[in-house]
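Problem 12. The chain below contains 278 residues. Write out its predicted structure in token notation.
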Amino acid sequence: MGFHGYIFYLQDMYKVFCHEVQCGYRPAYSNSSFSVFPELFEVQKGEFPWQVSIQMSLKHLCGGSIIHPWWVLTAAHCFPKTLLEIATEDITVVMGTRTFSDGFLERKHVQKIIVHRNYTPAQPDNDLSLLLLATPIQINNFQMPVCLQQEEKSWHRCWMVEWRAVYGHYRHDNWHMYLQKLRLVQISWRKCNKRVGQLSRNMLCAWKEPGTKGKCQGDSGAPMVCATRGTQRLFQVGVFSWGIRTGFRGRPGMFMSVTQFIPWIQEETEKEGRPYNV
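Solution.
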């Protein structure tokens, strides 16, 4: 590496370590998308560049999102106690792609899994976990952090994006899995609690936007992202926790509200010396 190349390398590393990265933007995304599978709402390459697949032994385990060059946000129930006893070398994070058959995807190893200290499987509250990567993500047009919602807002449009097998293939058959998206409408906490019951204030609910296509199976840890009217910047408002087939207007999908967990995210990332800065 020559002198000038070394200078550029240092500049890139400065941006990574100091988190000087614009979140929530999609520089490689064009609205002129074409779906190979007409019955599915397929994601275009670069449309959701923070979307990752968390894998165990190279098989899809859960969805997740890049929130910082060192950090991935996902659900706590992805890592039961028995799985946490397995060495983290078996857990990897795949990013920069919309299909696992893409030769340009990147795979990162995980240094540490941090499950929310108040999470218990019997009570699906605080269903969040953070993955500290072994090496930082090299930010580019296809690998970028999403913004995290800081305060309650009225959103114009929301999506859930998940990894899904197509044409009847097994869900963990990576070769036949693609990213799919579904437009969602958030439901008020009061209305959702009346329908589902026993919700904590850490939860939010959403279901399929009327008149849109697509079905959602529910990919644990997958982000729900939203935009305000007239803007292209996306914010993550939720992490998918539970709820069957959120594509139907029956039982809504349940998400952990990101806003409620910003202090926890800041606390845990600060402990590891890789702080998430709002």
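Discussion. DSSP finds four helices and 13 strands in the chain. Students who got a different answer should revisit the alignment rule from Section 12.3.
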